[in-house]
Design goal:
3 strands
């Protein structure tokens, strides 16, 4: 009640004003009636003296006026109360709408927060994938760098061996020239020196042959290692090719099953076919699966059976896309068998 008075002060003021007017009207009636009563008494007294009947009409009119005024005031109060009830209902409706709007905004806020969390999670997953890919590339670069370093070291070792062999040959040539000069200078000791020189040459020849053998052996070892690497690379290539071919074969088999299933679903089997009826159709398609042409290679059923096969193939314009156009260049055979 106090809440209604607080929210509708003007309505309260109007009610109080109406009550004040009513109260003033009642006071006015009382003041008007009193003199009339005295006059009526005088009139009555005179009438009593003259034996004349007088009706107290003023009192009856005042009561009627009070009743009408009271009904008017009650009606105005009921109208004010009805306005207050309507305003209260409007306020409650506005309050309900406000609560519903707040709930909608809260739900929208929760939805935006969930979308933001999902977006953040997607960004984090993408960043994690990027970091993993970067680490994989870094490992690949490091492995490639290590392999290049190993090859460089092997080349440097081979180059050192070549330089050492060249230096050895140069030293041998210098020694040979020195020996020839010594032979020319000491001809008198030729025989003795010849024997010593022959022994030394034989020893050097043996060492040279041994060195050549070592070089040849090292060369053969390097060539064998190179052949082994080539063999391993070729074997790896063959394995990868076999795996790719096996994967392609599996995909082709799955594609053929899909083609058979598609055609079987599109085939409207005629009634009265025999379970032994068979038909084989060779279909050629392009890389997109569109039918280029078809040929009914065999049909062991009746005319209705063969006609249904022909009509089914005429209706078909394309098949599932083949995994490899070259693998199905010769076409695919489709079986028509009654269920």
């Amino acid at each position: 009640m106090f809440e209604l008075l607080r929210r509708h002060p003007f309505s309260l003021l109007l009610v109080l004003l109406l009550h004040g007017v009513l109260f003033a009207a009642l006071l006015l009636n009382v003041s008007l009636i009193s003199p009339s009563t005295s006059s009526s008494r005088a009139a009555v007294e005179i009438a009593m003296q003259e034996d004349i009947e007088v009706i107290d009409a003023v009192a009856v009119d005042a009561e009627t006026f009070d009743r009408i005024e009271h009904e008017r005031v009650v009606a105005e109060q009921e109208q004010v109360a009805e306005q207050l009830r309507e305003q209260e209902q409007q306020r409650r409706a506005e309050e309900q709408a406000r609560r519903e709007e707040e709930e909608r905004q809260a739900e929208e806020q929760r939805r935006r927060e969930e979308e933001e969390r999902a977006r953040q999670q997607a960004l984090e997953e993408a960043e994690q994938a990027r970091r993993e890919a970067e680490e994989e590339r870094q490992r690949a670069r490091e492995e490639a760098e290590a392999e290049r370093e190993q090859i460089r070291q092997e080349r440097e070792a081979a180059e050192r061996e070549r330089r050492e062999a060249e230096e050895a040959r140069e030293r041998e040539e210098a020694e040979r020239r020195e020996r020839e000069e010594a032979e020319r200078q000491a001809q008198e000791e030729a025989e003795r020196r010849e024997r010593e020189e022959a022994e030394r040459r034989e020893q050097e020849e043996a060492e040279r042959r041994a060195e050549q053998e070592r070089e040849l052996e090292e060369q053969r070892r390097r060539e064998q290692m190179e052949r082994e690497r080539e063999r391993m690379a070729e074997a790896q290539s063959r394995r990868e090719a076999a795996e790719r071919q096996a994967q392609l074969d599996r995909e082709i088999d799955e594609w053929r099953s899909q083609v058979q299933s598609v055609v079987q679903r599109r085939w409207r089997q005629p009634s009265g076919v025999d379970s032994s009826d068979r038909a084989i159709v060779l279909v050629r398609v392009n890389e997109a699966g569109r039918i280029i042409n078809f040929d009914i290679e065999s049909c062991s059923g009746g005319s209705a059976f063969c006609s249904s096969v022909q009509q089914t193939m005429d209706r078909l314009s394309s098949l599932p896309r083949p995994p490899d156009a070259d693998a199905v260049r010769g076409g695919v055979r489709i079986r028509f068998e009654p269920d």
